[in-house]
Amino acid sequence: MQQGQQSARRSILINTLWGKANVLVRYLTSFVATAVIAANYKPDQFGFYQLILTYLTIIDSINFLNPTHLRNHLVKNPDDENAVAGIWFYQAIAFWAISTLVVIVCAIVMEDHLFWWLLALGNLRLVFKCYEYMQVIADYRLRNDLTQKMQMMQLGSFNAFRIVAALLKVDMTVLVGCAIPQGIFTAIYQNLLKKKVGFNFVRQFSWEKYKQLLKDGAWVSVVLFVTTVQTRIFSAMIAEKMTPEMYGNFQLIVKLVEPATAIGAIVFGANYTVLAHTLHANKEAFKKRFSKISALSFAIAMFCSVVIFIFPQSILVRVFGLAYEDGLSLLGWGTGIILANAILNISIQYDMLLVRYRSVVLKYGAIFVTYVALLSYSAQFSVKEAISMQIYVPLVVIFILDPLLWCVRNVKSGSK
After folding, report:
1. Mean pLDDT of 317-342
2. CA 205 – CA 108 distance, rounded (Å)
3. Is 223 within 8 Å of 361 (Cβ atoms)?
4. From CA 333, how far away is CA 248, in angstroms rounded?
5. Cα 342 to Cα 346: distance, rounded to the nearest angstrom
6. pLDDT digits (tens, 9 = 90+) for 3-16
7. Cα(119)–Cα(126) distance, rounded to whole angstroms?
8. Among 408, 296, 387, 381, which Cα is nearest to 340's?
9. 381: part of which helix (H) or strand (E)?
10. pTM for the complete prediction?
11. Cα–Cα distance, 110 to 100 (Å, whole number)
């Protein structure tokens, strides 16, 4: 018994350390890659490239099978490893083929042919997602450290290729094509991991099991989708309302503050299991612990905001060039994006822990609808106006919906 507890503690420690290393590598390499690309390309080129990545992220987020739900399914049905892996494998290939076909049709029909053909090129990376079933299997077998290594390999290799390509100032086609070697390296690595965990993959597919997995994990998949795409859709839509140079400047601000906006999710992610267990054991203790973690999350966001606000803009102008001077002069407004995201994340994490998936979807849906309404108000937006929307819209939605939903829940509980 004691040996088993020590083994469990060791696994938790290893998984936690690799998780922190993964976050550090992902955000550090992404930040460096973004900085190098922005410094070596003009604002309109940088904005064009970021728009392609935005669309690729939206396509990638359409995942009908949520990894968390699949892991939970395997806990209850340990004999379904090959079935789950096979379903993931064939769904990924089918979705890549369908999404690529749609993009190619858009390339033929739409006016901006270059954008859509480059999107089809970048979309090639999705075909390699068929091997990501190994992340589900490794997590289920309590080897989350291997999952973290896989993710580090994915984004680390992608950013390494992008940095080299940007330093060489290659054509945009080559820069977008960096996703292809990333996919190849990741596929090779994940196949090697099959031997490491001793998984003998026998490809199989069951329509009945696939439909059951879709049905059981529907809400989790919807929550994951809206969480991922709500800001990406805004970036895609605002591009139509700005000049290429303005959009490039706007994207640079967003990318510079992006690591800081993710800190809240990182802090809650590191403590999510502890909070979930505390909620199950004692609700009052949960509220106190959640308040402390929320305060820590917001304090870190405040610190990052102050650092960004006082950072000398002249240094950034020298790094990125005079073409980005107008955008960098508004970097102080980026602190508002950080704080707004911190407040939004606290609200969302509370709902997620209490399994209020409908509330999460409602909040993100309200944010999206508000963005659409505001964007339809004018034919063109400045960089400052675009940043302002990313500050005020989430705050207004949260400050209206949270009290409203609280009242609705109290009315329902009182009527029972």
Report:
1. 88
2. 34
3. yes
4. 16
5. 6
6. 444 554 555 556 55
7. 12
8. 387
9. none
10. 0.82
11. 15
